[in-house]
């Protein structure tokens, strides 16, 4: 006898999310699929700081102050924490419309635009929204089937609409949006300070050694039995910090300018508020302090993806089993009579078999011909007594 058993398989929502993202730790970590440059970022930061702590810090702590490696460690830990927070978080991805919602939006658009004559281009799908007495256009996303909120844009790399989209940063391996922009800004700011700090004390280290043994002897000095290794490592640190200064410090200054204006990189590149029409930025408060407080200190909105929410899928599996029966017993038929046969033993005595519904269901009784009287069985007489 086969029995159908329903088993529930627990599936998390992040397993069914569209888009080109990578999830780790059961949906707790969310990144882009292209993570090669992010690993390069980790290698450069960890490698440069490891060389600084291994060689220059020991000498500077003895000659100048033990606070030098302590402050460097604080900057390093803060930069790494903000980097991982930026890379592993949801930047503000907007969920795509469900099929019913998408069909309803399409029906509304068709009802508004009407029928378009053949050969003519349909009008753009745009809604007007007013912010601070200024009209802002909400554009329709053909991939997500939604009207994007103000300042949102669709990332072509991650294939998601991101709220307050700033840009996609391959160095952090994620999009930069409403939910992780402040951590991105703190990361580049702390990395700029760390780079300037290491670059400065590398020069101080070379200057202090040159005062004692001369500049040429400082470059030729070798630790242990590894010839010229200290010189090569010091020059490598200086080169990495020098080229990092131009890029990271310049990027920090650019984003400081954007924060002061309450503007995004995407809006600055497109010239949304500095075009020929000279439309003022409706999101700016006209005050640098208020803009900085809103961008960096405002409340952080929760993620609307619910990545670790549970979706239950039922799977039916067939299992074979046998019901124990004594000798001479018969499997009850799968009809309405089976319900009556199960209720009979509760009324009759256990020694008396339950009466059958019809004469054809009694194998031990002889079938009678029409007009022949039924022959009582011996058990029936004992049951009456």
UniProtKB/TrEMBL annotation:
Residues 137-270 form the Palmitoyltransferase DHHC domain. One of its GO terms (cellular component) is Golgi membrane. It catalyses: L-cysteinyl-[protein] + hexadecanoyl-CoA = S-hexadecanoyl-L-cysteinyl-[protein] + CoA. Residues 314-385 are annotated as: Disordered. Pfam families: DHHC (PF01529). InterPro entries: Palmitoyltrfase_DHHC, PFA4/ZDH16/20/ERF2-like. It is an enzyme of class 2 (transferase). The keyword Transferase applies. GO terms for molecular function: protein-cysteine S-palmitoyltransferase activity. It is found in: Endoplasmic reticulum membrane; Golgi apparatus membrane. Its main location: endoplasmic reticulum. Residues 332-343 have a biased composition (Polar residues). One of its GO terms (biological process) is protein targeting to membrane. It comes from the Eukaryota. Belongs to the DHHC palmitoyltransferase family. ERF2/ZDHHC9 subfamily. The DHHC domain is required for palmitoyltransferase activity. This is Palmitoyltransferase. It comes from Eulacestoma nigropectus.
């Amino acid at each position: 006898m086969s029995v159908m058993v329903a088993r529930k398989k627990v599936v998390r929502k992040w397993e069914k999310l569209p888009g080109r993202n990578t999830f780790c730790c059961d949906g707790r970590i969310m990144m882009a699929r292209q993570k090669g440059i992010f690993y390069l970022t980790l290698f450069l930061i960890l490698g440069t700081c490891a060389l600084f702590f291994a060689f220059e810090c020991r000498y500077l702590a003895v000659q100048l102050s033990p606070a030098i490696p302590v402050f460097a460690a604080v900057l390093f830990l803060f930069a790494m924490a903000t980097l991982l927070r930026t890379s592993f978080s949801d930047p503000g991805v907007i969920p795509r419309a469900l099929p019913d919602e998408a069909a309803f939006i399409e029906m509304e658009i068709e009802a508004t635009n009407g029928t378009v004559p053949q050969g003519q281009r349909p009008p753009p799908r745009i809604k007007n929204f007013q912010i601070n007495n200024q009209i802002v256009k909400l554009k329709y996303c053909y991939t997500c089937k939604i009207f994007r909120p103000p300042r949102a844009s669709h990332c072509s790399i991650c294939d998601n609409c991101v709220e307050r989209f700033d840009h996609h940063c391959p160095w952090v391996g994620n999009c930069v949006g409403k939910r992780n922009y402040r951590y991105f800004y703190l990361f580049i700011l702390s990395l700029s300070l760390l780079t300037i700090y290491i670059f400065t004390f590398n020069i101080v280290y070379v200057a202090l050694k040159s005062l004692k043994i001369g500049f040429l002897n400082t470059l030729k000095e070798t630790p242990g039995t590894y010839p010229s290794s200290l010189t090569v490592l010091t020059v490598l640190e200086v080169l990495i910090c020098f080229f990092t200064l131009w890029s990271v410090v310049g990027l920090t200054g650019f984003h400081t300018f954007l924060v002061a204006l309450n503007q995004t990189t995407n809006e600055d590149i497109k010239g949304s508020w500095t075009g020929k029409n000279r439309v003022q930025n409706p999101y700016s408060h006209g005050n640098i302090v208020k803009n900085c407080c809103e961008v960096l200190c405002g409340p952080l909105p929760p993620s609307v993806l619910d990545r670790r929410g549970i979706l239950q899928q039922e799977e039916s599996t067939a299992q074979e089993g046998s019901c124990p029966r004594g000798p001479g017993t018969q499997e009850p038929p799968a009809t309405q009579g089976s319900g009556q046969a199960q209720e009979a033993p509760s009324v009759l005595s256990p020694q008396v078999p339950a009466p059958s519904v019809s004469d054809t269901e009694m194998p031990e009784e002889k079938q009678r011909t029409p007009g022949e009287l039924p022959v009582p069985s011996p058990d029936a007489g004992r049951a009456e007594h």
